[in-house]
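Data deposition worksheet. Section B asks for the primary sequence of the deposited chain exactly as it was used as input, without tags or linkers unless they were present during the calculation. Section C holds the resulting structure in token form. Section D is free text for depositor observations; keep each observation to a single sentence. Incomplete worksheets are returned to the depositor.
Section A, Depositor: J.P.
Section B:
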Amino acid sequence: MPNTKSAARRMRNSARKQLRNNIVRTQVKTVVKKFRAAIEAKRDTSPEALRVATSMLDKAVKKGVIKRSTANRRKSRLALALNRANAASAAQK
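Section C:
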């Protein structure tokens, strides 16, 4: 338990921020997972799905949940995965 008023306030603030961070992190993971699943199943190789995932990562950075470089790395890997999927589907045709 906190010993001072300010420590109690900091505890409340951290709990609130932790809750928000977990929600945002979960949303990011879900969107990325759906994107990867769509590419694996060869259902969706459109840039629209990548745009949604990229947007979600950028919003997480804006809220301070993840670092800019982490988001950039993930966006890069998602774009590479999409390009590989598009190249594979073009080679099959």
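Section D:
Residues 5-92 form a domain with the Methane Monooxygenase Hydroxylase; Chain G, domain 1 fold (CATH 1.20.58.110).
Helices lie at 5-40, 47-62, 68-92.
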